[in-house]
Amino acid sequence: MDSEFFYPSKEVVKNANVKEYDNLYKKSVENPEGFWSERAKTLEWFKKWEKVLDDSNKPFYKWFVGGKINIVHNAIDRHLKTWRRNKLAVIWEGEPGDVRTFSYHALNREVSKFANVLKSMGVRKGEIVTIYMPQIPELMFAMLACAKIGAAHSVVYGGFSVEALAGRIQDAKSRVVLTADGGFRRGKITDLKGIVNEAVKRSATVEVCIVVKRTGHEVFMENDRDFWYHELMGLPIASAKCKTEIMDSEDMLFILYTSGTTGKPKGLLHTHGGYAVYTSTTHKFVFDIKDEDRWWCAADPGWVTGHSYIVYAPLINGATILMYEGAPNHPYPNRWWQMIEKYGISILYTSPTAIRGLMRFGDQWPQRHDLTSLRLLGSVGEPINPEAWKWYHKVIGQEKCPIMDTWWQTETGGFMITPLPITPLKPGSGTKPFFGNEVAVVDDKGNEVPVGEEGKLVIKTPWPGMARTIYGDAERYREVYWKEFEKQGWYKAGDSARIDKDGYVWIIGRIDDVIKVSGYRLGTAEIESALVSHPAVSEAAAIALPHEVKGNSIHTYVILRAGVSAGKQLEEELKNHVSKEIGPIAKPEDVTFVDSLPKTRSGKIMRRVLKARAQGLDAGDLTTLEE
Ligand code: PRX
Question: How far apart are CA 204 and CA 466, in angstroms?
């Protein structure tokens, strides 16, 4: 498998934005600051930086120090001075089939109006606005409006529930929450406002909630706190003229919460300058974006993929973006293929889970549609198994579209290990590091492991798109990512990987207590604490087991409180409880009732023992097991 190559066609190579890798890579790692400063010059700055990289306070790196910029100036304002003003920026399709489109001119109008609304609500530079919305254009307007006036956004994925939302609002101390009455998903209405109402009860800081009317179903609106978006946008205050705030390169653009090893989610902080440079460069080089393209990143803007590659990078690159609200198989499994044909999509970027899910329905669904507009494909979020890769390549890409399997993380801001369109591909490998990045696979001591062997993936060099810290917890940032290889100054990714004889990187999976379910990132600790919050539960453990479509699925073990009896009904109740607390994506496959859990002498649950047992495997070294 490791030696099976798929070569790009001559045409792909001839037309690619970047025509070679080896030489350029070599130069970029010899002089990363030179490479990144050239890239930064492709953006518009209010004031040029004085220093490309400040590494005087490791691991708290700073990029483009002294530079003044606003990402929105680059994503919108500068296009308005060119022919792109009237180019389509966004084509949006709702699940019920409604369509809305926005040129860059129209996008600017919507963003500016809403920015003025936010200002009128007292939103100021530096404060964090929580956004909890379905995949509707207003989600994008809201993010951009915040950034335009210098406020930071914290987008909480619309599939999360009360507890997850409340925890994030509290951590960010948001005064303003932006939401919608609901959204459409698989023909049903999601009750976002109901969840916000509950979450806000637990969050003392919230003073204002702005609600987009999407579904029109009845929702409870609190007097003097809740306002309808469309009503505010109709007021004279919502003028279409709004100045884009001048920001420092290193000013906070957003925080985005992600799961880690403890129950408390981490708010990774990204900035205006470095993030703009990094995301736009990776998008342009890897997805070869050109003015005539129609770009579809079929992620949710609530995750980093959506932040970087639905919203910011494509707009900076002046692309036309497709955004879709609903499920890939609604009402039929040809929904995506139909949209590719209808809008002439040229680049599709999605997750292995979505590919496997659609593959299940058979070739006849895509074959009913003309997919010849496609020229490049992409994959992200979890390792793609060669079978799914080949199906995607053959049936969707018709053997002419290279697949960009991009490895990266919420923490990295953009692609870290990825092919370029010209790279010979191996199904299941993200191939090689992006320009400027040096990566290695090492053992616990930091020695590189032999070719083909598994080890810990580290990034040896800083890059402009890196998260700057964990919001409000710099110590945790240092501890989680930098402590283990502090001496070497390397970033620990939390993934295991191997590098083959051709230097291709193969990601194996997480080595910490993070579970990737359908590409979504969840912490075992979050699931466990949701279980323990149920009155029947005394202790709980969650593990991941391989799943054919989702990549991994969640399996849980529970010790009940004295006097509570186990049973099918309680199992269902506990599964639903997790779903209600965190969100449907976290719903366990099953709950096994047990009398004890394997623990170390210091009381840590040994999840690997549970995992091995569940798979009928040898649990390995058990010397630290207490019972
Ligand atoms: O385990 C890796 C997996 O997703 C993790 C990061 O998750 P998150 O922060 O939610 O970001 C997902 C989207 C960037 C990584 O630590 N992962 C991401 N991309 C890939 C991947 N695993 C294998 N191949 C990939 N292409």
Answer: 32
Nearest atom (ligand 1) to Cα of 417: 26
Tell me how crowded residue 185 is: count the other CB atoms within 10 A of its CB: 18
**Contact predicate 159/142, CB 8 Å:** no
Phi, psi of 144 (to 5 degrees): -70, -35
Q: Which atom of ligand 1 is nearest to the CA of 514?
A: 1
Ligand 1 centre to CA of 407 (Å) is 6
What does residue 289 show for φ and ψ, rounded to 5 degrees?
-65, 135
Percent of the chain with pLDDT over 70: 99
Q: Which residues contact 362 (CB under 8 A, 6 or more apart)?
A: none
d(CA 392, CA 386): 10
Q: Which of 380, 415, 416, 470 to mutate to test the pocket of ligand 1 (most atoms within 8 A of CB)?
A: 380
Ligand 1 mean position to 518 CA, how many Å? 11
Work out which ligand 1 atom sits closest to the CA atom of 521.
10
Q: Characterize the bridge pairing of strands 252-258 and 152-155.
A: parallel
Q: What is the pLDDT of residue 4?
A: 86
pLDDT in tens, 178-206: 999 999 999 999 999 999 999 999 999 99
Indicate the pairing of strand 128-132 with strand 183-185: unpaired
> What global pTM score does this model have?
0.95
pLDDT, residue 604, reads 84
Alpha-carbon dihedral of residues 487, 493, 494, 498, nearest 10 degrees?
-100
How far apart are the C-alpha atoms of 532 and 541, rounded to whole Å?
A: 10
| Chain centre to alpha carbon of residue 213 | 26
DSSP state of 238: S
Q: What share of the chain is helix, strand, coil (3-state, %, to 5)?
A: 30, 25, 45
Beta carbons within 8 Å of 387's beta carbon, 6+ residues apart:
none
Which of 216, 242, 217, 213 lies closest to 230, judged by CA?
213
Return the H-helix or E-strand segment holding 212. Answer: strand 208-212
| C-alpha of residue 180 to centroid of ligand 1, in Å | 29
Q: Is 208 left (phi over 0), alpha (psi -120 to 50) or beta?
A: beta
pLDDT tens string 418-441: 999 999 999 999 999 999 999 999
User: Is residue 266 within 8 Å of 470, Cβ to Cβ?
Assistant: yes
For residue 103, which phi and psi values (nearest 5 degrees)? -75, 175
Spacing, Cα 408 to ligand 1 middle (Å): 5
Q: What is the pLDDT of residues 573-614, one digit of tens each?
A: 999 999 999 999 999 999 999 999 998 888 888 888 999 999
Q: Given ligand 1 and candidates 507, 517, 522, which is best to mutate, with the most ligand atoms within 8 Å of its CB?
A: 507
The closest alpha carbon to 51, from 32, 66, 34, belongs to 66
Distance 537 CA to ligand 1 centre (A): 32
Specify the DSSP class assigned to residue 448: B
Task: Tell me the two tokens of residue 485.
Answer: 């290889």
Helix, strand, or coil (residue 167):
helix
